Amino acid sequence: MAIRINGTEVAAPDDVRVSLLDLLRERLHLTGTKVGCNQGACGACTVLVDGERVLSCLTLAVQAEGRSVTTIEGLGSADSPHPLQLAFIEHDGFQCGYCTPGQVCAAAAMLREIEAGVPSYVTADLTAPVLVTREEVRERMSGNLCRCGAHNGIVDAILEVAAGRAA
User: Are residues 90 and 69 in the same domain?
Assistant: First the structure.
């Protein structure tokens, strides 16, 4: 069974031990997905599998068989950037840029979670629609680390895109 990566069918590796991260970077040369800690602690390797964020360093490629994987390369392009990519630029949501692909992928999934009404640890009322607040965004993005300290720009970028979706 194949894996659909950024809209293209790709054969799953024969070796079941290959991580999704290694498949993307080493075999398919999709280097936007970054190797950070390689232990699932930093979020630099975050990609979307069927629209949900996953840490590709902790996911075996065979776990994605029959599913759709979206990397930063598939989320937007130079000609048609994703709104989150534009907002990250506008709000200086990056410095070195290393964590940015994982941050953008995580933010895209996070906004879908909020639209679906999935609560987080800081959601005040579990029976009401989830509000996109600074505190909510910070909690939901806490698994994606930025060592440069661009967190305020990242949160501002996400809030801007979320506000545009609500309008």
Answer: no
